[in-house]
Amino acid sequence: MTTKVAIVTGGNRGLGFQIVKGLCQKFDGAVYLTSRSEERGQKAVQDLEDLGLHPRFHVLDVTSEESVEDFASFIKANHNGIDVLVNNAGVLDFDKSVSSYEEAKKLLDTNFYSLLKISQHLHPMLTNTARVVNISSDWGLLSNIRKQIWLDTLIKDNLTVDEILQFVSDFLQAAKNGRNAFFSFAGHYGDYKVSKVALSALTFVQQREYNKQGKDISVNCVHPGFVKTDMTKGMGDFTPERGARAPLYLALEAPQTLKGTFLWHDCHKVNWDD
């Protein structure tokens, strides 16, 4: 019998760790905890094994094309496909609300551009009923953007990946132009907001493409809540375990007909573009 496969990026701590834990408890198949650090990843695996759970580990730096290719080759050599893919890896410097161009580019490399690498190398292995879960944020709602041209563009039914890339490029140009230009695009933490708005928009574009191809793949994004993690300096409303509830719902329990949606932390759909 073919072993099903679930993959979580950035799974060594915080929200990602709790998603891996939940999958290990309920998913009937192999669960891969991935992390760019082998040491931290193996430590997380050991922590779960101490609880009687058995995740598998593989190094994965989502910002590295070579690393993504290597992981894709490993999965292809050892499995017949991917059934659940949770794109959780993300960064945010909570101490810096206005970033330099270099800092903004580094954040976007992790939070958004990585999804394109993953789409290129891992999506071809998605099974016909696979579930892709993209971790977004309430800062990933379209209303966080202040530029009317992008408010009008990103809600188009025929939005393209190239247009999303142009949106991100325009923001990076604003970041290059200094603090005022950075702030005028999306306010404080504009780089994080842009990364999550772009991630959400990409979710809907990818779902439309799979629908056109006649595949039963579901691609959804989710706001897990304001989760207390190292990234948020311990601030937040929810524990990581509570934050994992909606992502795990999408990965395991939601009807397969739930596609191309923005899900709130309490598992109800919201209008991304309100």
TrEMBL record:
It comes from the Eukaryota. One of its GO terms (molecular function) is carbonyl reductase (NADPH) activity. InterPro entries: NAD(P)-bd_dom_sf, SDR_fam. It holds the Pfam family adh_short. Signal peptide: none annotated. Keywords: NADP, Oxidoreductase. Gene3D superfamilies: NAD(P)-binding Rossmann-like Domain. Belongs to the short-chain dehydrogenases/reductases (SDR) family. This is Carbonyl reductase [NADPH] 1-like.
